[in-house]
Design goal:
Number of domains: 2
Number of strands: 14
Mean pLDDT: 95
Distance between the termini: 13 Å
Helix content: 25-40%
Oligomer: single chain
Number of helices: 10
Shape: globular
Order of helices and strands: EHEHEEEHEEHEHEHEEHEHEHEH
């Protein structure tokens, strides 16, 4: 039986209106009753992930969650941090300065807070959507004088792709893990740390074979855990490049309970077997 289901939020568990279907809720509850750990695995902060942990009641049971694309893994009932990998100051500040060369916004996380140094509609929408507090400072490079959880660039996809090229042209891409978590979000994370390493570390701590895990996602920041899990799943609405490297692509999209489809097919069904 699969023992861990690692599941992305946006574009996967959440529909386009950021809601969770009753069908998904019921399937998750049934999987937990069978002994599965349902692990929310998001690029979001732990403050944002905790909103969903409370929604499911995970704050009252021994369960786990992954935030910041696998760089922060913790127990949901005690907030005990199992491991945390921040972005070093030198790399974070270099990422911020590079972002300044493009027509985009840049923010960073530290000390359970989103830090910005200017107001913008994109940042406001991002903070509201993720249900997080934010603080304005003169220059977020000052915040990055200490290790930060991650740096995020927000803007039009065309401009972010120009930024991505510059990241690798300058060599910064060899010192940080970068990825698109949405068309308008480009993220800078600690080198070598992603949702895949987070899932592997968690499985090791819980003494669970990585073959006994399922990973469900839709975007490129989900790909590392999709590739490393025993069963890697991409939602129907996911990126084509992610689908191509997944073991299974759902028949339903995120607006039609794709997560429930996976749980019912591979966990709850009397005929459920390991995906071959």
């Amino acid at each position: 039986m699969y023992k861990i289901i690692a599941c992305d939020l946006d574009g996967t568990l959440l529909d386009d209106n950021k809601k969770i279907s009753q069908k998904n809720i019921d399937a998750i509850k049934s999987a937990i009753e069978m002994g599965c750990k349902f692990v929310i695995s998001s690029g979001r902060s732990n403050m944002s992930v905790d909103h969903f942990n409370r929604f499911f009641g995970f704050d009252k049971i021994k369960n786990y969650a992954m935030a910041y694309n696998g760089a922060y893994v913790y127990r949901t009932d005690t907030d005990e941090v199992l491991f945390e990998y921040p972005v070093p100051p030198s790399e974070a500040q270099e990422a911020i300065r590079l972002c300044r060369e493009f027509d985009i916004d840049v923010v960073t996380y530290r000390d359970r807070m989103l830090w910005q140094d200017r107001e913008s509609e994109l940042i406001t929408q991002y903070a509201d959507r993720n249900m997080i507090e934010r603080t304005t400072v003169y220059n977020i490079e000052e915040i990055a004088q200490k290790p930060v959880s991650k740096v995020i660039a927000l803007g039009k996809n065309k401009e972010l792709k120009r930024l991505e090229k510059a990241v690798f042209a300058t060599g910064l891409g060899k010192r940080l893990t970068t990825c698109f978590s949405a068309d308008i979000l480009f993220e800078f994370n600690p080198l070598g740390i992603d949702k895949g390493t987070g899932l592997c570390e968690l499985a090791k701590i819980l003494n669970i074979d990585i073959k006994d895990t399922i990973a469900i996602g839709d975007n490129y920041n989900d790909l590392p855990m999709i590739e490393r899990a025993g069963l890697g799943v991409c939602c129907k609405n996911g990126e084509d490049g992610v689908k191509a490297l997944s073991d299974y692509v759902t028949c339903n999209d995120n607006n039609n309970s794709a997560v429930a489809e996976v749980i019912e097919k591979f966990v709850l069904s009397p005929k459920a077997e390991k995906y071959m």
